[in-house]
Automatic annotation (TrEMBL):
Residues 1-22, 23-50, 51-78, 79-106 form the C2H2-type domain. It is found in: Nucleus. The gene is Znf629_4. GO terms for molecular function: DNA-binding transcription factor activity, RNA polymerase II-specific; RNA polymerase II cis-regulatory region sequence-specific DNA binding; zinc ion binding. Its main location: nucleus. GO terms for cellular component: nucleus. It comes from the Eukaryota. It comes from Calonectris borealis. The keyword Disulfide bond does not apply. Keywords: DNA-binding, Metal-binding, Nucleus, Repeat, Zinc, Zinc-finger. This is ZN629 protein. SMART domains: ZnF_C2H2 (SM00355). Transmembrane segments: none annotated. PROSITE patterns: ZINC_FINGER_C2H2_1, ZINC_FINGER_C2H2_2.
């Protein structure tokens, strides 16, 4: 297995594999596994959002995020899990999903 010099580093590693997200945004409720990810997200609340979805009105700071969002309306799910075949609209959602399989495999290896 992997070795860690600090307990906090090990704790972050475990949260990653278990998909735990203890850091929650007070403005929108979205949760994150790392405090730094929450801080980056919270900065986005103050950004200008000039790219609005013509279908639902949700606005984005980046044109690329609007393009990703449009997939939800179109039903596009180009990212498929190699383990179970479930499909997702964003690669980040697939990565989050794949943690379930990592947890199952790690738990089985540890005798959980």
């Amino acid at each position: 297995g992997k070795r860690f010099g600090h307990g906090a580093t090990l704790a972050k590693h475990r949260r990653l594999h278990l998909g735990l997200q203890p850091h929650r945004c007070g403005e929108c409720g979205r949760a994150f596994g790392l405090r730094s990810a929450l801080a980056r997200h919270q900065r986005a609340h103050g950004e200008e959002r000039p790219f609005a979805c013509g279908e639902c009105g949700q606005a984005f700071a980046l044109r690329s995020n609007l393009a990703l969002h449009r997939r939800t309306h179109a039903g596009e799910r180009p990212y498929r899990c190699g383990e179970c075949g479930k499909a997702f609209g964003m690669s980040s959602t697939l990565v989050t999903h794949e943690r379930v399989h990592l947890e199952e495999a790690h738990g089985a290896a540890q005798g959980w």
